[in-house]
Amino acid sequence: MPKIFICLLFSCTLFASEISVQVLGSGGPEGGERASSSYLIKKDGKAIALIDFGGGAFLRFNQAKAKIEDLQILMFTHLHIDHVVELPALIKAGYFSPRGCMLKIIGPTGNHYFPGLNEYIELQFGKKGAYRYMSDILSSHSESFSLKSYEVKKEKDFNFLGLHIKAVQVNHGIVPAVAYRVEIDDKVIVFSGDTSARSETLTRLSQNADILIAHHAIPEHGYEEARKLHMTPSHIAEIAKKAKVKTLLLSHRMHRTLGLEKEHQALMSHIYKGTILWAEDLMKIKVP
Ligand SMILES: [Zn+2]
Ligand SMILES: [Zn+2]
Q1: Does pLDDT of 225 surpass 70?
Q2: Structural element, H or E, at residue 203
Q3: CB of 38 within 8 A of CB of 21?
Q4: Whether 193 contacts 179, CB under 8 Å
Q5: Which of 22, 41, 42, 202 is deepest in the core (most CB within 10 A)?
Q6: How far apart are CA 8 and CA 202, in angstroms?
Q7: Ligand with the closest atom to the CA of 26
Q8: 52: left (phi over 0), alpha (psi -120 to 50) or beta
């Protein structure tokens, strides 16, 4: 099938209406029975957006019956290994798929400690990259499909085939990180990624969201160093309350928080009166 026809098929699927979020990875970086951070947005059962792609997410992607040829956009919150490491597996699989359209990827700009998304992609698929045998993927004359990356420095808006995405830089210690607000068919889904949310940025981004997926990576007390990177449960609840979020989905469930769910839910419910859900791999939530 000619590439142009395949691309038109994508735009023709935009008038259907059931929007859902599916968790591919609900865990942190330590391993265990949960995959690391990854989520899908589905429209009428088709995976159209992929957010993060940590360890184990490629298997979950397949278990969720997602197809690379249906993806309109991939968003990386940051380049910590537990959020991005399975990208090459996805790209390799894509080579064998019917995908012809360019795959767009959004991610953070770099700093002294981390490459930006453009350099990160180049380090893997560029002419001197580790997977240089697939460097064709960065050329517009690619035999299969091509990749195009977009870096977010402070704040940027994107419109792709009915998806409106607001990407905003958030604090995650020394790591350049981005949170995303995705608007589709009047539904709003916000992905905090890993962040300490020490400014009001995440609260502003989450205003009236149908679902806020927040990373529950530390207990309420202790872990002083980790607090520079992550939000405490009470801080997450305060943000959800101030932003009038309808449903709060707690993910990135690190080992140090497992077993504390009951205690944290009680603490958070005291502050935030909306629905609180705990993420599990492959859990699917229809956005009302
Ligand atoms: Zn993480
Ligand atoms: Zn992180």
Answers
A1: yes
A2: helix 201-205
A3: no
A4: yes
A5: 202
A6: 35
A7: 1
A8: left
- CA 37 / ligand 1 centre spacing (Å): 7
95 three-state secondary structure: helix
Strand pairing partners for 278?
Answer: 250
Distance of alpha carbon 96 from its chain centroid, rounded?
24
CA angle centred on 99, ends 94 and 102, rounded to 5°:
95
Beta strands (DSSP E) in 26-108 are 38-43, 46-51, 73-75, 103-108
Pairing label, strands 284-286, 187-191? unpaired
Give the bridge partners for 275, in sequence order.
Answer: 247
Tokens of 184: 């589709």
Instruction: Tell me the CA–centroid distance for residue 183 and ligand 1, in Å.
Output: 24
Alpha carbons 177 and 195: distance in angstroms, whole number: 8
- Residues 249-266 have a mean pLDDT of 97
Token pair for 21 = 């979020």
**Do 125 and 137 touch, CB atoms closer than 8 A?**
yes
The CA distances from residue 120 to 57, 172, 199, in Å, are: 19, 18, 27
Whole-number pLDDT of residue 222: 84
Helices 233-242/261-271 angle, 10° precision: 30
Which ligand is closest in space to the CA of residue 54? 1
CB atoms within 5 A of ion ligand 2 belong to 80, 194
Q: Identify the DSSP state of 254.
A: -
pLDDT of residue 10: 47
User: Measured between alpha carbons, how far is residue 186 from residues 133, 182, 204, 242 in Å?
Assistant: 42, 10, 18, 20
Average pLDDT over every residue of 111-131: 98
